Amino acid sequence: MAETVRRVRLGPIVAVVVLGSGAVLLARAAVRLTDLVGLVAFAAASAWLVTPTKRRLSRRFGSAGATSLLVLGVLAVALVAGAAVLADLVRASDELVRRLAELDEAGGTSWMDRLRRGLRLGEGASSWVSSLPGAVVADDPGRPAIGRRVIDLIVVAVLMGFFLAEGPSLVARTVGAWPRHDRDEVWSMVRDVDARAGGYLRRTAVGMAVGASIAAAVGWAAGAPYPAAIGAWAGFWIAVPTVGWIVAVLPSIGFALDGDLADAWRPLAVVTATVVLSFGLRSWRAAARRMLRPSSAVVSVCVALGVAASGGALALLLVIAAVLTVAVVTSPHRVTLPTPEVDRRTIVVGPLALPGGATGVVWGAAVVLVTVVTMTALARASSGVVWIATALMIAVAAERPVSWLVRRLRIPRQAAAAVFLLGTAIVFAGLLGTLVAEGPESASRALDQLPAVVEDLEGAPLVGDWLAERDAAATVRAQLEQLPSRLASGDGATSWFPTLGAQLTGMLWVLLLVTAFVLDGPRLAPAVERHVPVRWRRQYHRLSVVGFRALAGYAAGAVLVSAMNGVVVFVLALVLQLGLAPVLALWAFVWDFVPQVGGFVGGGPLLLFALVAGSTEFVVATVVYLVWQLIESNAIFPAIISDAVDIPGWAAMVAALAGAVVAGIVGAIVLTPVVGVARLVVAERRRPDFPGRVEGGANTPRVIP
Predict the structure, then answer these.
(1) pLDDT score of 696
(2) Rounded CA gap, 332 and 182, in Å?
């Protein structure tokens, strides 16, 4: 009897090669692929939202006529509104550039005047402001991409027409992928999601359009500057629940403060209209039955990630995706994905079961596509991830003072959060005012005295002879004299001013996210826990409580220790009369959050100003600050922080360095407590009383309740 010969099947090998080659090609074109997927998804979402309008128009014009009217109408409105907004943005940037140019034209012979002209602050700010209209509209300030955005808009309109015509059949085919006995439940979920999520999004879209139109009309009638841009800004932000109206009124308030008192009523009229529209939209949405109500934290996170990755269009798409996700999770109907069945062609690799044949290739291609698009979007939104992580840390730290205000003053949580955030904003505004008022004078005085300080150091022991041999004082004086001319021949502020603008934008986003997290955190956390599967809910609750307590304890302790460090620097600066005491204290406060090295970096400006003030001031400041740092590092910090998060020194250093590489000082601050919380969570899962743990021998298992 002939022996049966088993041969290697080529199908799986070919499938792996095809998927690998496709992954490489997708990775090479990841950015454009992500944009294409975004365009298709935005067109599909737009077609879904205007489907009820199409049904009404179809009764009069037929299906084809209704589709054509909707596509042409959306395209015309988008082009007209975009042109009006772009024109206002260009006029606003031109006006601001003209005013900033006066900085470089101002006279003055002081060292700071020459330094300002050398840095070309006006030119740097003008270059950044001039790029803003293109960045806002095209999200690509490095090259003219307005035409590409117009083409993208036309593509979206065409795709929307396709989805309007073929949408019902596409949905039916998708539902048909489920087994026959599950389709009724799937259709019930589709109708439920369409009713709740679709109702919320349609009302929001109508409110945004009406709000933008009314705000622009009020601004135009009152003679406020740039009404189209202000209206579009207000219409975009009033869609964010609870906190959106705060951001929506900022440009109008800025114009009111910048102009004459007699003309302040013009932008204030726009502010009033925006606030009324925002709360009116909130009441209109709340009045609808079975309406979905996503929290402001969820919407704010989506908007931040979308704006950081690709601008306002992606932000709207992410909001739609988040609302759909919330609707699916909270739906009373439960369905599972129609995954392929395991058969003889299935490839089993450990716990993984990979479908074979053409089905496996399709599933693998889908997984590769989703992975590439997701990773590319996250890479483009890296700044948004940093904003969210920073805001979460601040919100956790703010939980204790807000709860204390609620208990002490017996006021609602929103009022307590408003008091806390307003107080914090006032403190930072005061520090900024101090920097603006005293900064130029203090910096000019320090630079003028620097050659004399170096000359005094030439008579000091140890380093004096070395400085005198190299004529350090004359060299420093000559370098300072040549510095303005060198700056004038270089790039000036044009190279670093965009970075400064990005940092300012990031700070504003963090403030917005902190507000949303503080207001909605207590409501969002229980809502998430309710949707955790029952068999895992006790474990999730235990780990979330441990993690939150550890993070809150670390944040509160770090704030206390950093505040003590800031107070020490503030007192030293006042006693030694160094100037800019609040700013030096704020610098020391922020840097003290970075483990190991943050305290010494935070004291650098203090010691520099003390060195300029004189040798006695420098010695006193150095001795006092070093002694304080030794006490803080070896006694105060371990006593306060170790009760919340016990992080070994080497782990804290590695986490700080890794965070600094990824996201600068913010990453160094955020990643350290995250590592500590992860260690606590792992240790908690190993405890013998952790829910669900089995104790005893193999013959006598016992599940701990």
Answers:
(1) 46
(2) 15
Q: Which residues pair with 694 in a beta bridge?
A: 703
Residue 705 CB: number of other CB atoms within 10 A? 7
Q: What size, in residues, is the chain?
A: 705
- The DSSP H or E segment spanning 694 is strand 694-695
Over 301-361, what HEC string results? Answer: HHHHHHHHHCCHHHHHHHHHHHHHHHHHHCCCCCCCCCCCCCCCCCEEECCEEECCHHHHH
Q: Measured in whole angstroms, how far is the alpha carbon of residue 122 from the centre of its chain?
A: 28
Q: Is-contact 238 244, C-beta < 8 A?
A: yes
Residue 651, CB-side half-sphere exposure with 13 Å CA sphere = 13
The DSSP element (H or E) to which 618 belongs, if any, is: helix 615-631
32 in Cβ contact with 45 (< 8 Å) = no
553 in Cβ contact with 644 (< 8 Å): yes
* Tokens found for residue 91: 């006029």
Is the confidence at residue 2, as pLDDT, over 80?
no
Most confident of 61-70, 417-426, 473-482: 61-70
The one-letter amino acid code at 483 reads L
Q: At what angle do helices 183-222 and 265-287 cross, to 10 degrees?
A: 160
Alpha-carbon torsion angle 144, 146, 150, 156, nearest 10 = 90
Are 179 and 186 in contact by the 8 Å Cβ rule? The answer is no
**pTM score, two decimals?**
0.77
Q: 184 is written with which tokens? A: 């009724």
Q: How far is CA 37 from CA 22, 32, 135, 221, 253, in A?
A: 16, 9, 21, 41, 38
Gyration radius of the chain over CA positions: 31
Find where tokens 């000082």 sit: 665
Quickly list DSSP for 347-412.
EEETTEEE--HHHHHHHHHHHHHHHHHHHHHHHHTHHHHHHHHHHHHHHHHHHHHHHHHHHHH---
Q: What is the pLDDT of residues 171-209, one digit of tens each?
A: 888 888 888 888 889 899 999 988 888 888 888 888 888
Q: Which of 626, 356, 406, 390 is nearest to 513 (CA)?
A: 390
Give the ranges where 410-471 is alpha helix by DSSP (H).
Answer: 413-457, 464-469
